[in-house]
Amino acid sequence: MQRFKNTFFYVGIIGGFTALMYWIVILGAKLEQGRNIVIPNTGKTQWQEFLDSLIYNLEHPLAILLAQIVTIILVARLFGWICQKIGQPTVIGEIIAGIVLGPSLIGLYFPEFSATLFPVASLGNLQFLSQIGLILFMFVIGMELDLKVLRNKAHDAVVISHASIIIPFALGMGLAYYIYDSFAPSGVQFSSFGLFLGIAMSITAFPVLARIVQERGLQKTRLGTMVITCAAADDITAWCILAAVIAIVKAGSFVSALYIIALAVLYVLLMVKVVRPFLGRIGSLYHTKESLTKPIVAIFFLTLILSSYATEVIGIHALFGAFMAGAIMPENLKFRNIFIEKVEDVALVLLLPLFFVFTGLRTEIGLLNDPYLWKVTGLIILVAVVGKFIGSALAAKFVGQNWKDSLTIGALMNTRGLMELVVLNIGYDLGVLSPEIFAMAVIMALVTTFMTGPALDLINWAFKSKEEVIPVEISQINKFRILVSFGKPERGKSLLRLANSFIRKLNGNASVTAMHLTPTNELNHYNLAEYERDSFRPIFEESQNLNQKITTLFKGSNDIESEITEVANKGDYDLLLIGLGQSIFEGSLLGKVLGFTTRIINPETLINQVTGRESLFENSPFEETTRNILNKSKVPVGILVDKNFTSSERVFIPVFSKDDTFLIQFAQKLIHNAESQITILDLAGQIKNNPEFKEKIRSIEQQAPNHINLLSEQIIEKEFLREQNLMIVSIESWKKLVDSKSLWLSDIPSTLIMKENE
Predict the structure, then answer these.
(1) Contact (Cβ atoms closer than 8 angstroms) between residue 513 and residue 553
(2) Quick one: pLDDT at residue 583?
(3) How far is the C-alpha of 714 from the C-alpha of 624, rounded, in Å?
(4) CB neighbours of 207 closer than 8 A, spacing ≥ 6?
(5) Closest CA to 636 of 614, 613, 669, 658
(6) How far is CA 126 from CA 130, 260, 359, 360, 674, in A?
(7) Fewest 10 Å CB contacts: which of 153, 300, 509, 693?
């Protein structure tokens, strides 16, 4: 009754007041008499007027900007994903996306589309938004610098870092001497041109380097700590040098620049001696998400904006102010993590791709239309690599590193990435770099960043270094080793319970390694340790409940499935346990049958269906990540379909073919270690006709007669299924179950899908 009352009230109030407004309009029309109101007659139909209005709206600056942002984010994410798949940092893909959308490709082959999407008049808006993104990003980079590490490990790192700056800087100025006549813009002094080429050769991309260190699992090693410290010192030094270079270029001479530099020094002292203690006091009082209210957040963002404004007015660029504001933030880890989380997603996902595309719009590779110009490009790349790579490596060797570590440091310090583009854009804006040199240097940034991964692989191969993929304490165990790879901690707990069921009574002759890999784009260097602790905390708690010792492995990766199988294969594990990832069946009819009702179909899998790469009930009923692990693994793999798995007290194994024989060994382990009650279902009559199968079951019956039961019923009762804790099935039998759309799938317990050792 209440629902009808609400409906009548809604209709009455909306209808009544609509009628009142209509009546007012009619009365108002009578007031128009004698006011000489003229309705323009354009001679166009209403449809034409609508189209004109629509075109006007599409060409409005805000509509163009929004269309640009949507296009840029989609293309940047696509190319970033492609680069991630081939083992390269996503920043390379984002830079390439910018070049593709610029005059080098889209503008060259689709000029009308390019002119519509990126009209010249709109580029100013895009530039300002990209600068805001850069300011926020540099703020994050400043916060990610761990100044305590610099203070504690500064000596060797500073030697390597400063050598890696001064050597390429000098080589860059030498290169400028030879190409000044041909490529320097008219009216630009040699000192300005040479200084900018020098700083372009000597920059290192701290964020990209930190991500590569995480992907390679080096963050906890002595080498990883050294190279991160070198990069941090390089970052601080290079930005200070860049500020001085900008001051010199803007002032026109070194003497005139002394006034700007003096103001910059005064600004730094003010930030360090006055602003930093003030912010530190606030940070100590408000360091939790609950206490960090909007007025407090406003203070810190206001500090960022004022700092950027001050350095822009002084003449050393707003980005230096943003970097400095981040560096003086309170050193409390939790506080910095909160701010990094607030800023990073907006800066990296939304605004930073605008900078890459704006750079791409400036990069005209078509200008390099002569073999001589490509020779100069090659020379720039050579000077950059020799100066940074070789310079860093020689400095590292001088301070006592071995050749392998020295070359590794050199390869990592040679990574330029985004920071190079920042420097180049500043030089371009100041008119110091010509369009040709700008395009050449962008190519150099791409090449030097792209070569880092292959260079590290080549160094490891040359020194025949086998990466330690299994801890020493595990490698000494010679009985049964299980690798548990988990994403979500809750799923990891279930996998750990299952692993414990296989080895519970082996008394130290077995091991469990819990491994968590995470995409590198979800990590930053500063909160890495905290993220690792949070990921493993539930696993450690469960291991204590089970009284099961575990060893942990954690690292960032941009190719998780390959990393999992590499660790499993090289570590010589006896069993790899993983959880079922986001299945194609989640949200589908079969997903509802299996109990996956909370998600929709994976978009990537849906694309595969549309393109014919997989069908809904194809004989590969797993999403791509799981299939890749199965294809690459050389050890037995168990995939847990977790339906609140708690124990392995009652287990049943359906047998469809003679190839399921290998499952018996896992039944034996469960009986011995977990005292499981095993029921084997001979659904296809395979066991009675297979002497090997019968002999293995008879052997178990002699040792544990009360723990194994053989059934040959063709029909499985729901009550039986609901009594079981776990089903173990081979991957081929699982495919048959899925293909047949067996009705009893809806009632199965947690299921372990097994792939036999190759």
Answers:
(1) yes
(2) 41
(3) 33
(4) 91, 141, 144, 417, 418, 419, 524, 525
(5) 669
(6) 6, 29, 11, 12, 64
(7) 509
Q: What is the DSSP track for 258-326?
A: HHHHHHHHHHHHHIIIIIHHHHHHHHHH--STTT--HHHHHHHHHHHHHHHHHHHHHTS-HHHHHHHHH
> DSSP string spanning 337-376?
HHHHHHHHHIIIIIIHHHHHHHHHHH--GGG--SHHHHHH
Per the CB < 8 A criterion, the answer to whether 329 and 300 are in contact is yes
C-alpha torsion 487→493→499→501, nearest 10: -160
Q: How far apart (Å, rounded) are the C-alpha atoms in residues 145 and 162? A: 17
- Counted residue by residue, the chain has a size of 758
Same CATH fold assignment for domains 471-581+622-639 and 643-758: yes
CATH of domain 643-758: 3.40.50.720
Q: CB 472: neighbour CB atoms within 10 A?
A: 8
Which among 421, 433, 462 has a CA at the least distance from the CA of 249?
433
How far apart (Å, rounded) are the C-alpha atoms in residues 284 and 293? 14
Pairing type for strands 750-755 and 575-579 reads: unpaired
Q: Rounded to an integer, what is the distance from CA 497 to the centroid of its chain? A: 30
**Helices first, then strands: H and E counts in the chain:** 35, 10
Dihedral sign of CA atoms 567, 555, 348, 316 in order: negative
Low-confidence ranges of the chain (pLDDT < 70): 1, 38-43, 146-156, 219-220, 287, 289, 464-478, 508, 520-528, 581-623, 684-686, 688-692, 694, 701, 713-715, 740-744, 758
Residue with tokens 């970097």: 323
Contact 207, 260 (CB under 8 A): no
Q: What is the pLDDT, as a whole number, of residue 579?
A: 83
What is residue 653's predicted lDDT score, i.e. its pLDDT?
86
Strands 750-755 and 637-641: antiparallel
Report the first-to-last Cα separation within the chain, whole angstroms: 68
Q: Which SS3 state, helix, strand or coil, does residue 552 take?
A: strand
List beta partners, residue 710: 680
Q: Write down the pLDDT at residue 259.
A: 83
Query: Which residue in 327, 294, 447, 438 sits closest to 378, CA to CA?
Result: 447
Q: Where are the domains of the chain?
A: 109-462, 471-581+622-639, 643-758
Helix crossing, 190-202 with 371-385: angle to 10°?
60
d(CA 583, CA 592): 12
Locate 693 and state its tokens: 């199968």
Alpha-carbon distance of 136 to 153, in angstroms, equals 28
Sheet holding 480-486, edge to edge: 551-557, 510-519, 480-486, 575-579, 637-641, 750-755, 726-730, 650-655, 677-682, 708-711
d(CA 208, CA 214): 10
Cβ-based burial of 331 (10 A; exposed 0-12, middle 13-18, buried ≥19): middle
CATH 1.20.1530.20 for the 109-462 domain, yes or no: yes
Beta bridge partners of 486: 516
* CATH (one of 1.10.10.10, 3.40.50.620, 2.40.37.10, 3.10.20.310) for 471-581+622-639: 3.40.50.620
Distance CA 298, CA 490 (A): 37
